[in-house]
Amino acid sequence: MRFKLFVLLGFILIGFAAKAQTQEDQLIKDLIESIAENLPEDYDLSELQDRLTYYRKHPINLNNTNAEELKTLVFLSPLQISNLFEHIRKNGKLIDILELQSIPDFDLQTIQRLMPFVTLEQGSVRDEITAKNLLKYGNNDLIVRYGRVIEKSRGYTDLPGSRYLGTPDRYLFRYRYTYSNRVSASLVFEKDAGEYFYNGPKQRPFDFLSGHVAILNTGRLKKFVIGDYSMQFGQALTLWSGFAFGKSPDITGVAKRDVGLRPYTSANEFAFFRGVAATVNIAKNIDLSPFVSHRKLDASISTNAAGEQTVSTINETGLHRTQSEINNKNSTEQIVYGGVLQYRTTALNIGAVAYHTSFNKTFVPGSSLYQSFNFAGKELTNVGAHYSYTYRNFYFFGEFGKALDAGLAYVNGALVSLSPTVSAVVLHRNYQKNYYNFFNQATAEASEAFNEKGFYAGLNINPNKKWSIQFYGDYFKFPWLRFRVDAPSDGYEFLGQVNYTPTKTFRVTLRFKTEVKQQNTALTVPFNYLDQVKRENYRAEVKWALSKSFDFQNRVEVVQFKKGAADAEFGYLAYQDINYSPLSSRLSANLRVAYFNTASYDSRIYAYEDDVLYNFTFGLYNGKGLRGYANLKYRLAKRLDVWGRYALYNYDNVENVGSGLDQIDGKMKSEMRVQLRYQF
């Protein structure tokens, strides 16, 4: 009954609501959705949305920019960026934005994506750093968010053993200040569900605190950041923290968009450095980026025979809900220092990286055989070299990384424009099983780039304005054992996608993806052998607009999972999204109603979901039932907005939802979220 009331309420709200969503807002949503579906379910994409939202208000001047800035627009490939600069070098500054159509590799879709975030006019905002300008022309952005699961889960009951010691409420406070492209500052507080809000063990008010102050584009001092920051260089093999992408229908994504030093503004509690960093121009075309970081990390602590505390694993979740998680909080210290030297011209980028990482406790590999080559000790030095070079219609890129006294890793690839309508990418990688690196997000099949070899090839075809075709194939091999894989193994992945866009208001997408890996048999046998595990996804999606006010998204997805000689199992998902968007209104709304039916967790389906600004939800569709959510946004005043979200699962034929401490009695799980944003 509650689900039926929810659906009815959602349609009533949309019937009366006016969603103040511009084409630029929809573009940001589409971009994030196309990227997000290939990321882990807990991935924080606020950094990307923050960039795009900022550029929409403060567009990049294409006649006065650089490759590093354009790489933050993740839909631009390195070859497109290089071709843009080559066009300007030969023909002078752009006179009209439509001139982009004459630049190689700039297809219509890319230009449409680019237009909301760029300009050809010099900004009128003053950028001289003075107290008066900072106060008068600075932009302040304040967000306060509250959310919780409405039903009471098992972890909040008075259990005799492990339980959640805090409250089920989630809080976020984020303040961001920007002044032109010269000054940036932020402060982020967050409390997760189950954590203490105040005066918990090892805790100040809120559980997580992050902040920074940055001064940018000041003569030879290009960047200076104190506080939290990320470092993104080369192909993410030697030094990369924060935001990164892997394989996706955008085949150019395997060539990393390295943006160097950046202030950190995300609520993700792990993927950043904390300390001081800078980028300094020391000679023509040569930059030096020194940095030092000191952090306390969560770790699982053990005691060896000598009574010394040792580390087995670093905990990356940032959750401190149970007594065990609280005990692990800040239990080891990490100090990192080093630098990056880069030589950059329009066509060539060569860089060298060196840094040292030390811990106050010794790492000891786990006892399982697959962990035999894991890092051991307190000290680690990493060095690497990366390059990219554009020659005519070719873009070459790669990186070599080495952990001193340990393994080697390298990745090399090329983007090539074969014709005005066809582009291709190839990539080869080889990561040794004892390549140690704590800041590594290179393209890989596994979650970390070590113990893997592979070859990737992709093709993008745009025969005309209506059709686009993408596909890639990736073969990978794991020379050593892995978790639940007690022998060397290999596999492959293939994706094919076709988009048909006859008009600006209608698009059809068909996708097929198959992945084959090996895994220990599920049978009880004296010695494990490997079974072939095959997973296939079939997707059909339609996005269409009934009028300037109504637009819809329909998706059907089928998953087939098969392991060894067992029968194949299937999962199904079908959903309907509805948006109502007149040209202007204070009120915004969208709604999804979904049906799902999966045989088990193995045939689960993930789907990206709309949420409040800067929050991201990856719906897990597992079991059988209905899923629905509704989002509302209301502009209380010119600079004051409020969001509301209500979402629920309604499962069929179950007595409880979830497992462990998250188990809820009954067949319903619902969640609410409220957010306030004030810009001044």
Count every helix, treating DSSP H or I runs of 4 or more residues as helices. Answer: 8
Shape: globular
Number of strands: 33
Uncertain ranges: 11-24
Backbone structural class: mainly beta
For the residues shown, what is the average pLDDT?
A: 90
Radius of gyration: 25 Å
Describe what this molecule looks like in 3D.
With 680 residues, the chain is mostly beta strands. 12% of the residues lie in helices and 48% in strands. The protein is built from eight helices and 33 strands. The chain has a 24-stranded antiparallel beta barrel. A two-stranded parallel sheet has the order 1-2. Helix 2 packs antiparallel against helix 3 (46-57). It is globular and about 70 Å long. The model is unreliable at 11-24 (pLDDT under 50).
Short description:
The chain is mainly beta and 680 residues long. The protein has eight helices and 33 strands.
Keywords:
680 residues; mainly beta; 24-stranded antiparallel beta barrel; 8 helices; 12% helix; globular
Secondary-structure blueprint:
Blueprint: H1 2-16, H2 23-36, H3 46-57, E1 60-61, H4 67-71, H5 78-91, H6 108-114, E2 118-119, H7 131-137, E3 139-149, E4 170-179, E5 183-191, E6 208-218, E7 221-232, E8 260-263, E9 273-283, E10 286-297, E11 299-303, E12 309-314, H8 323-328, E13 332-344, E14 348-363, E15 377-391, E16 394-403, E17 408-419, E18 422-431, E19 452-461, E20 467-478, E21 489-503, E22 506-520, E23 530-545, E24 550-563, E25 569-580, E26 587-598, E27 605-609, E28 617-621, E29 624-637, E30 640-651, E31 656-657, E32 664-665, E33 668-679
Parallel strand pairs: 1-2, 12-14
Antiparallel strand pairs: 3-4, 3-33, 4-5, 5-6, 6-7, 7-8, 7-9, 9-10, 10-13, 11-12, 13-14, 14-15, 15-16, 16-17, 17-18, 18-19, 19-20, 20-21, 21-22, 22-23, 23-24, 24-25, 25-26, 26-29, 27-28, 29-30, 30-33, 31-32
Helix pairs in contact: 2-3
